[in-house]
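Lab notebook, page 48
Experiment: co-folding of the full assembly
Goal: obtain a model of how the components sit together before planning crosslinking
Operator: M.T.
Materials (sequences as entered):
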Amino acid sequence: EAGVTQFPSHSVIEKGQTVTLRCDPISGHDNLYWYRRVMGKEIKFLLHFVKESKQDESGMPNNRFLAERTGGTYSTLKVQPAELEDSGVYFCASSPNQASEQYFGPGTRLTVT
Amino acid sequence: GNSVTQMEGPVTLSEEAFLTINCTYTATGYPSLFWYVQYPGEGLQLLLKATKADDKGSNKGFEATYRKETTSFHLEKGSVQVSDSAVYFCALSDYSGAGSYQLTFGKGTKLSVIP
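Observation: model returned without errors.
Model output:
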C-alpha cells in the first residue's frame, strides 16, 4: 500500500511569488491534515479535511494560505504571496478515522528568499 | 490550550547506552500520547502510542508510559544503536473543539548515536 506522498520535496521561491504544494493521502483515508514546522519551532497544525470539507482550519496563519481538496482525494496548499516567514517544512498526514493514527508524508521544504 | 515540552538536545550517546528523552504535556481534555520519529531524509513515523493513563507503549525496544499524575510520557530505550539516530517528537492528540483531533507536538530532540 502506498503511503502519503507530497510534491515537490523542496521548493525555493522569491518573496511575493506563489507556490502550490500537493499532498496525496493514503487511498481510502477520508481525513487529511496539513502541518508545518518553521525553523526551530514546533510542528504546528494548519487544517483538517474530512473528504472535501474543511473540518477545522483554526491553525491557518492568515489569508495568504489557501487549502483545497476537490473531490476528496488529493489536496493542495497554495501560498500567495509568499513571505520570508513562510519558510519551513510542510507536512501532510492522513487517517481513516478522525481519532485514529495519522500517517505522515515526507514533507515539502519551502524556502522563501 | 494544549502544549508539549520535551528536552531539546541534541543528545549524543555511545552505542549501547541508555536513552531517556523527557516529555511533559498540558491538555484541556484527556489526550492520547505519541512518540514520532523522523529518520534522516524521511517523513515522520509513529514510534509508539498510549491512549490512557498507565498504558505503556512499546516498539523497536523503545518504551514510554502514560503518567497522568505527572503529565509525562518519557521515552526510554535500554541500549541504543547507531540506526536509532534520528529526531524524536513527543505529541498529543486531543479533541480541538472545532471537530478535529489535531496533533500538538514538542520541538523535537535530535539523537546521534556514535559507534
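Interpretation: Chain A has a mean pLDDT of 94.
Next step: discuss with group before ordering constructs.
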